[in-house]
Prior knowledge:
alpha/beta; Isoleucyl-tRNA Synthetase, Domain 1; four-stranded parallel β-sheet; 45% helix; 3 domains; 13 strands; four-stranded antiparallel β-sheet
Amino acid sequence: MDGGRPGVAATLRALSGALGRPAALWVKESGARNLRHRDFLAPRAALSAAFPGGQVPPEAVSAVPSLRGPAVLPLRVCRQTPAGLAVQVHRPEAFRRLLGPLPGPPAAAAGPRTGCVVLHCPALRGSPAALRPRHLRSVLLADHLAQLLRAQGVDVRLVPALSEEKSWGVLRQLRICWPSGPGGSALTDAISALKAALGRCPCATACEQGPGTAEGVISKVHLKSFVEQQGLLGYDPNLDVLLVTERTLQSLAELQEAVLQCPVSDPTALPASRFPSSSCCSIVHVVNCEEEFQQQQLDVLWRILDPGAHTALQKYLVCGPVKVTNPSSPIGADQYFQLRKCQMYEASVIKYGELAQDEAWTEVIDTLTVAAIRFEMLSTAHRSQITLDLENNSISTKGTKSGAFVMYNCARLATLFSTFQRAVEQGTYPPLPPVSELNFSCLREEGEWLLLFNYLLPFPEVLQQAAQLPPPSKGIRITANTETVCKFLIQLSMDFSSYYNRVHILGEPFPHLFDQMFARLQLLGAVRDVFHSALATLHLPPLSQI
Length: 546
């Protein structure tokens, strides 16, 4: 058998290639019922469209089990069924390939950085006291997206830098990693350059301070005519005149400095301007739906003042509204966090009693609160509305679709392995042998294949898909699958919990039972690693107790 880590996409490509058809004919099964009979299926309808009468040449069918490749799953059998062409994987070998040591370092860690993305979150330009749950949603999304992109080798710049970090306590409480610090002389120079460009701009009219002039306004810029002349698509038709202030220019200067910090793809090309066209940098404004219009104004102003290639790469990731049910008054982000923390404490006391009142549980409650809020904000597609019910205690340690449930199952795994380690130290069990000595043919329980096939196998591709920022078909809005990781963790937690409740992992210390126990521990160790890696993209540390 070939070495290397198998993947879903590579296996699907190999299956389509075996039938001599470039189109994606095959689907990966995921439901427990279908996985009892097959792992991949070329549905009857797809075969009918690709082959005369839907009849696949027998020699093509017989060639499928012999498919090989470093990223192709080992296949056991391919047969015609009423549903279509069904393939089963050689499961013991798949367990060995996926649970064994990987040859060489991970690709993302060994390879160079691939491009740069500037994530701009206008919600952080206001004061901390003005931060609302709707703003928090876009900040959490940008923070999560930055982690996903970095995991794929992308260089990420976060804008704006926080000028008064100590004032943003709610960001620290939510474990949001955001840069801070003064702009310095480079920012001052950039503002001066923008002012000079503004003075030369034919679309701008200088404003003298006097009666009828808004305080701080230094110029009026006509945006509408520029948008029409350039044929820009996707911009609000109500864009017209923008009143430019010092703060407006500072916002643009911060974006310019972030772009300058991005690596250049061709370092031998000396730039003719401050922004080389060879720099592989894209700019994504992560905004809530109420901020989009104002950001479009700044976007067009930037295009006018600095008509370089970088300003044409601005795109928008727009978050849907956050509706708070029956608020007695507008609730701030800090109030929202404190309310959820109190609710999580009350729920933990109900479930765990006096244990939850111990000082050691303070950090646990904090982590559960952060998990609850992050999953509440991020498990819904970013375009859709979120409804926060703050009156009723909607935070629970029991619900299967909450961040607390995910953390609970992660802690169960930690408890399992600490219990096993103590038993090894006491001489109850021998240590876990090297993976090369494990017998994976012992893994015959339905839930074991479900964990491997639906979670361990596709996990790297799940992270890749979640980090993708596909260009828009038209206009300036993009769509990202930022809910993918939360949904993946929720489903993994449900299937792991079902398996763990059904199967006794640490059995009686009889030698004839060790093979199965060790194989299961190796599987669950890999599941634990997936939990940890996925939670890291949410800045959530794994819990050792709960």
